[in-house]
Amino acid sequence: MASSLQTDVLIVGGGPAGAATALGLLTYSGLRVLIVESSDLSAVRVGEQVDPSLFDLLAYLQITREQLEEDSFIQGYNTLSAWGSSHISSRSSITSSREAAYQLDREKFDLLLLGKAAEKGAVVMPRARCMHFQQSADGHWTVQVKHQTRGELSVQARYVVDATGRQSSIARQLGIGAAVKDQLVAVGAFLQVGEGGSVRQEVMLETVEEGWWYCATLPNRQVVTTLFSDADMVKERQLQKPANWNALLARTVHVKQRVANSTAFGSPWVRGAFSKRIDTTARPHFMAVGDAAASFDPVSSLGIGFAVSSGCHAARALCQLDEGDGAAINTYQQSIDTIFDQYLSTKATYYSQEKRWLTAPFWQRRTATTY
User: Fold this and answer.
1) I need a surface site. Which of 47, 107, 267, 295 has the fewest CB within 10 A?
2) Higher pLDDT, 230 or 77
3) Separation between Cα atoms, residue 304 and residue 317, nearest integer Å
4) Name one Pfam family in it (predicted).
């Protein structure tokens, strides 16, 4: 017979969005929180550039800069861009004109948030998957969870939060569809820079006919290099294969120079990078946060900031709902919709700056009003 656990809020996903939601709930309410995470928390995470507004969100969650592990944030990463021409220029995020920026060590940051949630009382269950959801007439949930070592568990929760990332796996299990706006994917690799190679503390973007490249320095003389293109193009041209990926990299003007004298850890990986949103009001006592609620083109630099801010707002909405405010989730959804609509408009303007490959499928799609 399966063991049984009871909680107020079941958060599925232990990334920044899920952890921020948990911290918001535990800081500003008495609700009990259980976080179920499918991984063992050891996955390598891509570094990300953030602006100083993230520190305001952390302060709201009662995390001070002094509590951050050394080198979690490295100040002063310059972002260079060859976008619209082969000439290199500095750029800020398409959603922010703030010049100050920090390169975020995702592994340290993610584990910090999750650790702080555990310190405040969250039960964190890694290596576990939610297999089946059943909702009663009063909106409460019974969720069958399969743990790698503890076996099957039955979790009773009043609220469920989908924090599973861009795939919105819980929303899909519940039959909640997503409005997907494109088919962007990332085809990338982690590279180790040899002793003879130079390591520049900067981020580089470079457009090509097939899409655009992203290159950023990571700790320990590592570099992440990623091609962003469309899924059908990657499949048709087999761009995930090392020979094809390397051949396309060799045709770049600037990125190839930044990865000279480096060696890849393995074959390129492929991850979704598409823009989409879901309707988090589709089921009672359900919410989605971070990429599970709305996901953005990485060129926007909205990822981590939105993940944490949406977690903070979702926690507040859940507190209000628990106190009897039936409109709280609708208000949360309206804020997501506003952010996403503004993002789509700004993204279209930004992509329109590249006019060298107007007949290429990747760029044609991003100038089409229906894409």
Assistant:
1) 267
2) 230
3) 20
4) FAD_binding_3
